[in-house]
Structures are given as C-alpha cells and as structure tokens.
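User: I've been going back and forth on whether these two constructs are worth ordering. Before I decide, could you fold them both?

Assistant: Sure. I'll take them in the order you sent them. The first construct and its structure tokens:
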Amino acid sequence: MNIYRALSFIIGICFTQLVIAKDADYVIDESHFSLGFLVEHAGYAKTLGMFKKVNGSFIYDQDKKLLSNVEIFIDTSSVFTNHEKRDAHLRSPDFLDVERFPVMTFKAKHNDLNKNPGKITGRLTLLGISREIILNTTVNKIKEYPFGFTKPIVMGVSATASFNRSDFGMDYAVGENGVGNQIDLIIEFEAIKQ
C-alpha cells in the first residue's frame, strides 16, 4: 500500500510540473524566421520582398492555447527585393525612412488560439504610427526538436496578414500606375521554448 502511495505522489508531482511548464516563454529562432511581403507594381505583377533581420519573443500556454506578450522587432534596413536600386529606394524617406525609423514592431497582448487556424490581433508600428492588424495564424507543430543534442521544444507557425501602407503615412506613388497600397505579409517561423 505504501508503494502505491509513493507512486501516486511521484506521478502527482510530475504531472504538476508538466502542467506548470505548459505556460512558457518562447524566443524566435532567427535562423528559421521568414517575413515576406507582396506589393503590386503598376498592376502588372507583384514584387516579392522580405526583411532579413527579425527577432522577438512571446508567452504561450499550451494547455489553454493562450498567446500573450508577443513582441516582434523588424530591422527596416534589412529589406531585400533582389534589386539594389529598388532596395535603396525602399530605405529612403519615400518608403521605410530607415534613418528615422530603424525598427518596425508588432506587439500583441492576449490571444486565444483554440481555433486552428486562428487569429492574432496586435498592433503594427511603422513610421512611428501604430495600427491594429490581424494575423491569420496556423500553429503547425509544438514538439521536441529532432536534431542536435539539446532537443528543445519548438513551436512552428505560419501566418498571413494584409494592410494598407497609406494608413501608416507611406503614400508615395500610391495609384493605378504606381506602387500598390495593399501590403500582403507572409510569415513562417520557429520559436524555441526557454
């Protein structure tokens, strides 16, 4: 009987620790983060670009599927569209104005991800202006990483969003024969449980 009590006690402790561990900090794996964007060019085709330097973190409760304290920081000077002259123009005051605004941020407080795909509502700050945007989000996997020696728990996420750049004061060349107003975001990332 004492053996059964001891086993029950040990199992209870392990279960409690497991539950507590579900609410955890995650840090973006910068080597597995892609932030791409699409924007129309004079109605002919869309230009695909990306930001090459991004970092951030968040808290995720795996039991309740609650996401909180999301903070993502994007280095605006890292914009890349595979065309040096265009990239230099994008960094200028006409667009990202990277000297005055070197960082673009996305922050979100509390989001319920019980539905998958789900939505993350947060605030994007660009050119010093903050606006609410919604990320259409799919949590692909939360599991022990199969590679390396440490094998941490990794969360993989895919997301998309759209916004009008003119809402942030970026209205250069907006028009039928100019650069599109709508920006479509494509986000793929892995985050490591701490």
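The second construct, handled the same way:
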Amino acid sequence: MARTFERALRRAGVPMAYSQGFSPHPKVSWVGAAPTGVASEAEYVEIQVVRELDPEALRRELDAALPPGLDVLEAVTGGPGSLAERIEASLWRVELPGVEPAELAEAVRRLLAAERVDVERLTKDGRRTLDARAAVVSAEVVTESTGDTSRGTGGTSRTAHILDTSDQVEPAALADANGLVTDSDQESGEATAQVADWPERARPCGILVAVVRQTTPAVRPDDVLSALRVVADLVPPVPAKATRMAQGRLDDSGVLGTLVDPLAADRAASPTTTPSGVDDPAVR
C-alpha cells in the first residue's frame, strides 16, 4: 500500500519534500500501520511538503489518484509534534463466524482475569513469545441477530456483553464505533463445511470489539485470538474477520478504552483555507 500511495502522490502532483543522500525518498511516514491481512478504516499517514496546501484540495486530488478501495477521508495541516505521539491504541472489531457469543464472552472474561497470557508468533527470526494480555485495554462481545429491529438499523439488533479490566465500562460503550479482516492460522476442515452449510440467519457469530494498546512488539488481532485459545481453548471453525476501526490516544478521564481523535487539535487550529509560501508543513 505504501508504494501505491507514493505513486498517487506523484500522479496528484503533490510538492513533496525529499530526504537527502544518493537515493532521495519522499518524506512519508505511516503511523501504526495495520498488520498484513487485516482491513482498516483508520490508517494515518504523515507527509511533508515544501509548501502549504489547501488540505481539502490535497485530499480530493490524492483520493482521485488512488485505486478503488483506497480512500483518503481527510487531510489536515499538522501542528507541533509528530502524529505518532498522539496514537497509543487501536479499536478492533473481530467477527468470529460459528462461535457462540456466550462462549466468546466467557473466553474474553478469562483473558481479562489473567495477569499474563503468553502467545507465540512465528517471525523471520524464529518463534517469539509475547504477553498478549498486557496490551488489551478493554473488550466487549457483541451479538448480532437478524429479524429483530428493537435496536440498530436494517433489521439488526445488538446485545452487548461488556468486559474490561476494571468492570466499570458501561454497556455498549465501545461497540458503536466499529467494523475488520484478520487471517487466523486455524484451518477450516469439517467444521468449516458445517458452518458454511448453516442458513445465514441461523449461523452464530460472536463479535469481539477490543481496544488494544500499541506495544513493541505489536500485539495483533491474531495474537488476541491466540490468547483466547490459551485461556479457554477457543478455536473458531472458520477464519476470523478483523477490522481496525479507530486509532488514537487513550482518554483516561472517561470510559475505559475511549480513544481521543489524534487530529482533533490540528483540525481545530487549521483555517478553512491555507496560505502558501511556507516550507515543510506536515499534512496528514
């Protein structure tokens, strides 16, 4: 995606700033880029240009230069400090077809009750062990069933089971933000065929909504699923679908797991139109 974005910058004629040296590169910085194999509705990229631009014009030109499926939702002129300093966690939505919500809720309860849950990840340097529990700030299990219009839209109702590290989160505090796609390392087999044969309306689907702190190394959605397997032997019969719905700084003053918009301060400070002639602004 990074190469596609850089090609779009060239097509759109964005006056990029370049690094020094024998092989100059445009100054583009992806902040907390999503792992391979997942979908995202909230990716942030910081670019440096040689003069200030109208953010909306930049957004429009870049969006037109990108292929279908990659959309620039907003561009903002950056203020002091880096964008990376304002992003501490991500909000993930993970759908697990074939998993009963009650079973998922119990697995999440066990995960949050544990002080530490070690999982293994295969890297280019071999297997690595990391504590998945330490990164999970809060979690919520949501069930969606068709045919009940008491809540939601389009004939969809939602029942929330709130689980968090302090048992103080209000119902539905996290779920209203979400949507994703993560590849799980569990294969389908006979259980997959059984789930696929179920009528769509009758197929259970547990949905996990979790706020995960950005750590080093990063804890990914598949690591959280591995942790659920460790604590509760939860193995989805088909691959899970994960989507990152938001990124931001954790708001310690509100509901546990609330994320603060990382661009809020820049958006408030930006004029409706931007003057030209200033070197090296950061446009996000």
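Notes on the second construct follow. The chain has two domains: 2-85+262-283, 88-260. The first strand starts at residue 28 and ends at 31.
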